[in-house]
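Tip: read the tokens left to right.
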């Protein structure tokens, strides 16, 4: 005899104050000479890294994540496409573990790189995601359990043993802060961490037993 079963999806969210800021810093240098553009990009990137280290960022938390050198092509009437110069770009991914002092560290990086710096965006998160995610899973379980219990009662049954439980690997995460295309000032701005959430979604199958 086939046992009756009920399948329920539960969702849960846990909020906490973020304690980790991940920053993407870009460098863009233009020159009529490819070697000069490349050298300037390297010098600027090193200056940015040095400024961040002076604000307590360790070598392990600074990573070069991109490097590119390309021709700057322009279209000229009667001549077609011509090389106007060269553009060298690089990017650093930086983890700032003291959110309260992040504003001054970012400002120092911008000041060190000058007009060659680009801030490509930042994300606020957690150094220990497991603890926050565990609370989100517990909330998702309680949500599924409440819903399953209600349906079981409506079906004049009770919940039996759990047959299966699966977690959605992509329940949806908070949207990161907006992208900042160009750094136009070295003045400090305030990074407000607020509360960041983590979501969990699970699917549970129960047997339905007689009441």
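Filled-in amino acids:
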């Amino acid at each position: 005899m086939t046992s009756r079963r009920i399948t329920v999806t539960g969702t849960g969210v846990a909020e906490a104050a973020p304690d980790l800021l991940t920053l993407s810093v870009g460098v863009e240098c233009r020159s009529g000479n490819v070697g000069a553009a490349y050298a300037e990009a390297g010098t600027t990137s090193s200056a940015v890294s040095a400024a961040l280290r002076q604000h307590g960022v360790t070598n392990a938390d600074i990573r070069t994540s991109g490097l590119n050198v390309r021709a700057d092509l322009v279209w000229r009437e009667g001549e077609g496409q011509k090389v106007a110069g060269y553009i060298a770009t690089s990017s650093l991914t930086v983890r700032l573990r003291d959110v309260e002092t992040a504003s001054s560290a970012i400002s120092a990086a911008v000041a060190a790189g000058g007009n060659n710096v680009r801030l490509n965006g930042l994300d606020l998160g957690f150094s220990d995601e497991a603890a926050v995610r565990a609370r989100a899973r517990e909330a998702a379980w309680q949500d599924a359990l409440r819903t399953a219990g209600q349906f079981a009662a409506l079906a004049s049954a009770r919940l039996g043993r759990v047959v299966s439980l699966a977690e959605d690997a992509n329940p949806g995460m908070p949207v990161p802060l907006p992208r900042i295309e160009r750094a136009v000032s070295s003045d400090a701005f305030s990074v407000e961490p607020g509360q960041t959430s983590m979501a969990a979604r699970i699917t549970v199958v129960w047997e339905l037993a007689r009441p």
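The chain has a mean pLDDT of 87. The longest helix spans residues 129-154.
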